[in-house]
Structures are given as C-alpha cells and as structure tokens.
Design brief:
Elements lengths: L1 H26 L8 E5 L7 H20 L3 E3 L1 H5 L10 H12 L4 E6 L7 H12 L4 E5 H7 L4
Parallel strand pairs: 1-2, 1-3, 3-4
Helix pairs in contact: 2-6, 4-5
Length: about 150
C-alpha cells in the first residue's frame, strides 16, 4: 500500500511539472510567422558614451539577427528614440517592455559589457521565468560575425 502511494504521488508530481512546463504551448500556440525573440541589452549608465555604444550594439545585433532570419524585438532600439518625446520613468518603460516580453517566445540576453549587473536584464529574466519563456545568452561578436554582410 505504501509503495502504491509513493508511485501515485510521483506520478501526480510529474504530471504537475510537465503541465507547468508546457502550458505556454497549450495556451499560446506558435504563430505561423515564426517565433518572436525579445533581445535584452543593458542600457542605463551615467556616461552618455556608454549608453550610445550600448544602443549601437543593440541595433547592430538586431540588424544581423533579422538578416539571419530571426524575428527580433529589441526594446532598446524602440524606446531610446522615444525617450525625449515621451515622458516616462524607468518603471514606466520597464512595464512597457515586460508587457511585450510576456508575449514573446524567447528571451535572448545580449552579452555586452554590463549585462551581468543590469537591473533591467534581471527584471527581464525574472519575467521570462514567470511566464515560462526560455532564456538564451548570446555573445555579441558571434551574432555579428555570423552575418558577414556588415
């Protein structure tokens, strides 16, 4: 009897885990247009030159990934031009970005200097985990070098 209860408990636990892992597939079927990738990059820094370089790296990585056939949304290249025209706090932009991330199929973190300590990337990763969105870490140089068109 005890063995039966252990086996039954393990089966129930396995069922719960598998259901939780696959609920996105069941509830949100993949688009026939392909998966949508959210490309997270660090941005905030006291030095405007660092911010400019991070923006440029995000833009170049997005260009190369699109050329390679990926559907990429990089919030940095969308929101930075809007900063001067739309009043918004960090929290407002974060809420905007997480609303989009929650609808994406994957989160890709662009590994450029500062990514490990970025508050926004930490928030992105937490949101992805909450919504069972796979997280992938991509190296900037590898992305840019895969597409040799410049």
């Amino acid at each position: 009897m005890a063995t039966y209860l252990v086996v039954a408990s393990l089966c129930i636990a396995l069922f719960i885990i598998l259901t939780a892992m696959s609920w996105r597939t069941l509830i949100k079927p993949r688009s026939h247009y392909g998966k949508l990738i959210y490309l997270a990059c660090p941005y905030t820094h006291e030095d405007p030159e660092v911010r400019r370089k991070r923006y440029e790296q995000s833009l170049m990585a997005t260009i190369h990934l699109i050329r390679l056939g990926y559907n990429v949304f990089a919030p940095l290249i969308y929101t930075v031009p809007l900063e001067s025209r739309v009043d918004g706090t960090y929290e407002k932009w974060l809420k905007f970005n997480l609303a989009i991330l929650s609808r994406c199929d994957e989160l890709w973190v662009l590994k450029i200097p500062g990514w490990e300590v970025s508050k926004s990337i930490s928030e992105d990763i937490a949101c992805a985990k909450e919504h069972y969105i796979p997280v992938r870490y991509v190296d900037y140089e590898q992305v840019v070098n895969k597409d040799k068109r410049g």
